[in-house]
Amino acid sequence: MFKKNSLLQKVLLVLFGLCLAIVIIEIGLRLGGSTILHIQEYRNRQTIKKQGSYRIMCLGESTTQNQYPAYLEAILNQSNLNIKFSVIDKGVAGIRTTEILSNLETDLDAYQPDMVVAMMGINDDGKHMPYDSSAVSGSEPILKSFKIYKLAKLLWLRIVNKSKEMRSFALKSGKLKSQEPLNGVLGNQPKKPAEAGLPNNFEYSPTGYLYRDKERSAELEQLCKRNIELKPNDPGAYIQLGWFYDDRLKHSEAEELFKKAVKINPYQDAAYLQLGSFYRRRERFFEAEQALKKALAINPSNSDTLDELGLLYSHQKRFAEAEALFNKAVDLNPDSELFCGRLALIYSESGDTERFKLYTEKANRLRSGYYDLKTANNYHALKQILERRKIRLVCAQYPMQNIGPLEKIFAKETKDGIIFVDNEIVFKEAVTKDGYSEYFADMFGGNFGHCTNKGNELLAGNIAKAILQEVFNKP
Question: What pLDDT shows up at residue 206?
Fold first, then answer.
């Protein structure tokens, strides 16, 4: 009886400790988020204290929050109009348009803006930095309202998004087509964790299976090793453990495992592709080229090998060779915006303006030509609310993106009064001239990302130009 009570006490203490840890983390996240928003709100309050100013409120996500609004205010105030401009930053990282709309009336009451600039919608499909809108709908479980849940979901979805960038070395087998979804394990292993000798609480990542809590790394390593013992002649088992080690900076151990996979089946292109990908990431370009050429010799129609070798040549500024590989990939995948985008980047780097424009337009056509219905409806709701209050609306498109789909949200008769800001041309010209990294800090949006200071200044300048021309008749 005493032992049972003692065991129960230990279990209860462990559970109490876990609950306490979760509560502390949750409080920390809320305090951290509140601190950032408090600082932002303080700046906004200071802004609206300026009497007689023309107020502009910026709505959006992380591409707005602490990004271009400060530059917009500075540029507008240098326009020599004898008007004092105050720009209010209401961007919130990870927010969706539904949440933006739910806060809109309150924000309008608080700040009384003369104009609203909206650049929003990137998070509505949940692919990049999702905001869980359970607090708005009231229909989701309470769990989803916790910051710790949102953080875990955000981290996982960022891993998923990163997998797209790492697709070339996340193959299941040499026969995988580039447009197929990622699932299962590398090589010829089964799709389900249990069938691969792994427990069901594993999920697949670009570098193998991971525990959903991402905490049990040592146990994962042992299970990957066990998988090799069960299937010693399967190259995929070695590749899986190789990427596991590579993620943990054990590069020499990873290299040996990739070499082992090649040795097991030197007639399969998948193992050479993985080895070449590994070398490219380590910037061991000569070895990467040799491995990738062997993979291509075995299977000349593997789009992922063409992509990987093309990226290698692009990095080395061997543009003609990269172009030939990407062109072949386009022939094999005529509907792939990825490879059209690769070619556009090649032509941008090599200074071929005409073909850069051609393939950029083709890539854009292959991408979604419309907004999600929810996003479109929220843009309409935004316009209706602002019209009732006689507030001017500016709809800004994300950098590098075509303005057409944003304009198509509104029918011809409902476009009246809206200022549309096309940020595609100005950014593509700048990127062609100076390079992508001058204007973007990452590529979370596909062909655009969060702006650098230089990018935010360019974005703000383009928005300011439209406002000055359309509202104040200043050329």
Answer: 38
User: Does one domain contain both 44 and 73?
Assistant: no
Residue 22 lies in a domain: yes
Distance CA 130, CA 122 (A): 9
Domain annotation covers residue 366: no
User: Given the structure tokens 């500075």, which residue do they identify?
Assistant: 74
* Domain enclosing residue 261, as ranges: 174-294
Q: How many CB atoms within 10 Å of residue 161?
A: 16
**What is the b/e burial string over 433-459, where b = at least 16 CB atoms within 10 angstroms of the residue's CB?**
eeebeebbeeebbbbbbbbbeebbbbb
Per-residue confidence (pLDDT) for residue 416, from 0 to 100: 81
Instruction: Indicate whether 259 and 278 sit together in one domain.
Output: yes
At 369-425, the pLDDT tens digits run: 567 778 888 999 999 999 999 999 999 999 988 888 888 888 776 778 899 999 999
Query: How far is Cα 38 from Cα 13, in angstroms, rounded to an integer?
Result: 36
In this prediction, the residues of the chain whose per-residue pLDDT falls under 70 are 1-5, 26-52, 125-217, 365-370, 413, 443-446
336 in a domain, yes or no? no
Check which CATH number belongs to the domain holding 421 and give it.
3.40.50.1110
Q: Which of 17, 32, 49 is the last residue of a domain?
A: 49
Query: How much is the pTM?
Result: 0.49
At residue 45, the pLDDT reads: 56
Domain count for the chain: 3
Res 212: pLDDT = 35
Domain boundary at 294, 314, 335, which? 294
Q: Report the C-alpha gap between 82 and 172 in whole angstroms.
A: 63
Which residue matches tokens 């930095």? 129
**Partners of 203 in beta bridges:** 210
Question: Cα separation of 272 and 298, whole Å?
Answer: 9
Q: At what angle do helices 235-247 and 251-264 cross, to 10 degrees?
A: 170
User: Which DSSP state fits 145?
Assistant: G
d(CA 178, CA 368) in angstroms, rounded, equals 18
- Cβ atoms within 10 Å, residue 227: 23
Identify whether the C-beta of residue 336 lies closer than 8 Å to the C-beta of residue 178: yes
Q: Does 180 lie in the same domain as 280?
A: yes
Give the pLDDT confidence score for residue 129 in this predicted structure: 28
Q: Are residues 115 and 183 in the same domain?
A: no
372 domain-assigned: no
Q: Based on the fold, state whether residues 72 and 26 are members of the same structural domain.
A: no
Query: Distance (Å, rounded) from C-alpha 9 to C-alpha 234?
Result: 47
Half-sphere exposure of 333 (CA within 13 A, CB side): 23
